[in-house]
Amino acid sequence: MIPLRVRTLNTVSKFTFAATIGATVITGDAMAQQAAPTPGSAKAIFGAATLPTQGPPQSIGFYAKGCLSGAVALPADGPTWQAMRLSRNRRWGRPEMIALLERLSRDAAKYDGWPGILVGDISQPRGGPMFNGHASHQIGLDADVWLTPMPARPLSTAERESLPFTSMLEKNKFLTVDDKVWTESRARLLMRAASYPEVERIFVNPAIKKKMCETWTGDRTNLGKLRPEYGHDSHFHIRIKCPAGSANCKPQPPVAAGDGCGKTLAWWFTPEPWAKPKPSEKPPVKPREVMVSDLPKACQAVLNAPSVASAGVATFGAKAAAATPATSTLPVSSTGAGNTPPGSIPQQ
Ligand SMILES: [Zn+2]
Question: At a CB cut-off of 8 Å and minimum separation 6, what does 269 contact?
Fold first, then answer.
């Protein structure tokens, strides 16, 4: 009896610890922090690029090992979105990714009771590894969207830097969604994002996936695209397929059929994914820093290529806006082309 009780307590404390880590441990995503990039590393070099290359968009390599040419920026503001943490200069992506974000924001506002999206990191101007925050996001086909609704007014630049993340998890509980924070509109937003054919995966915390498995009563065809992952409790991560004609983009196999609510999800609720290495085990060898030469060859050419003249000319919709005669209204079409004049942020 006593040993059992002790074991239970141990398990509970381990799981409580795990719950904390579940939200904050290095996740291959927004939580991983490094004080500064190692000089000469791919992270340092790609992180120093302030503008994208000229020319057509190309995703080169894999989501977690590659680079991006011809990137375009998500406008910092739109009628149904605001880009966050502007100082990071990571609102660059393939036009297909930017168009998808704009479309999601519009659809969510129109159909899902979600007033608009706050967009986190997409990619750096020339993609490549980032010195903090992510293993992927390297080829312009990954984007983070906050699980916090867009406020009814445009946030100031300072607010966009400092607005805290809101976790969907209960503090001090193991992988449990906080029902005081979670809403059906968030579930609808996730399934809206999963509904687009070009979206291949959406990474969410295992607790959020579980919540969706237990509560989503609509069409479950796309539920399998929601993939449980460490972190991702205050934002979700959208990954789209290599766009057609992207010869240099290395695709990822599609997710397995089914809703993903079975065994793979159950594994996250065992101690295994949260186990710390035993003291007897050697600490894992720190992987060698990734150098530009480790990336696809074409990435060196991406670094050497001439820049566009300014971020403005490479902002998504800028060409369409420039081509529009001054007398007509700016296009805000279903393709996402068109800059939206400031001041048109709708009230919630
Ligand atoms: Zn992400």
Answer: 174, 175, 206, 210
At position 323, the amino acid (one-letter code) is A
Count of CA atoms in the C-beta half-sphere (13 A) of 74: 39
CA of 83 to the centre of ligand 1 (A): 14
Residue 148 has pLDDT above 70, yes or no: yes
What is the model's pTM?
0.84
Whether 344 shows a pLDDT value over 70: the answer reads no
Ligand 1 centre to CA of 274 (Å) is 20
DSSP letter assigned to residue 155? P
The stretch 218-237 carries a mean pLDDT of 97
Ligand 1 is an ion; its neighbours by CB within 5 Å are 29, 144, 237
Distance of CA 168 to the CA centre of its chain: 16
Structural domains in the chain, sorted by start = 2-270+294-323 (3.30.1380.10)
Residues 6+ apart with CB under 8 A from 240: 94, 96, 97, 100, 141, 142, 196, 198, 199, 200
Q: How far is the CA of 20 from the centre of ligand 1 (A)?
A: 19
